[in-house]
Specification:
The relative contact order is 0.22. The chain is α/β, with parallel strands linked by helices and 202 residues long. It has one domain. The protein has six helices and seven strands, in the order ααβααβββαβββα. Helix 1 runs antiparallel to helix 5, helix 2 packs parallel to helix 5 and helix 4 crosses helix 6. Strands 1-7-6-5-4-3-2 form a seven-stranded mixed β-sheet, with helices on both faces.
């Protein structure tokens, strides 16, 4: 296959978003196979003691915020979910965490959440989930190559506009990246979303 990258150039994660590369082509470029399917991700089964409070707070404040820009969506919709995720899992969170695997895989992770398993969450620029998913693929590949914890056999990543979340899963042993068909809305699907995020870390 003809390479879609110029090996004499450097590429950041956000560059893949700007280039408009498909998820399938990006996976193949780095030697990963690809599928698009329902992931049916496992969900945490215990009580979520903050869930009703979070849902109530979101429903209460949403009418008062203009969510037209990335900063407002991050502050109002994404950050509260990440904060509650820490409450449930006691995970370490690295925000805008910089890594460099090589010249083709470098940049910043919006949220690298570390526990027994590591989880990536990125905000879709321009609320574009399609090319946001391409950027997520690049970051998942980078994390796979960078991460020393070989006990984690798969890595879950999420791309979100704040209002909508979608997932991908990288299986490390067979180098397969699966793009999930499911979408989760906030606040309507807050409970299954939180249960998936929690379970992905523990």
């Amino acid at each position: 296959m003809h390479s879609i990258l110029n090996l004499n150039q450097s590429y950041t994660f956000s560059k893949y978003f700007e280039m408009g590369i498909s998820t399938q082509d990006l996976a193949k470029e780095f030697g990963y196979s690809f599928s698009r399917q329902r992931l049916n991700l496992s969900q945490y089964q215990d009580e979520l003691d903050y869930l009703q409070l979070l849902e109530k707070r979101l429903n209460e404040v949403l009418p008062y915020f203009d969510l037209a820009n990335e900063t407002s969506r991050r502050e109002v919709l994404i950050s509260p979910i990440i904060l509650d995720l820490v409450h449930y899992t006691k995970s370490q969170v690295r925000i805008e965490y910089q890594i460099k695997v090589n010249e083709q895989l470098q940049g910043y992770f919006d949220y690298l959440i570390e526990n027994k398993q590591n989880l990536l969450v990125i905000e879709a620029k321009k609320a574009d989930l399609d090319y946001g998913m391409t950027q997520l693929f690049a970051e998942l590949i980078a994390l796979d190559l960078w991460q020393e914890n070989q006990e984690q056999t798969q890595i879950i990543g999420a791309v979100t506009t704040g209002k909508i979340w979608e997932f991908a899963r990288l299986n490390r042993s067979n180098k397969l990246i699966e793009q999930g068909l499911e979408s989760y809305r906030v606040p309507e699907d807050l409970e299954p979303l939180m249960r998936i995020l929690i379970q992905a870390l523990i």
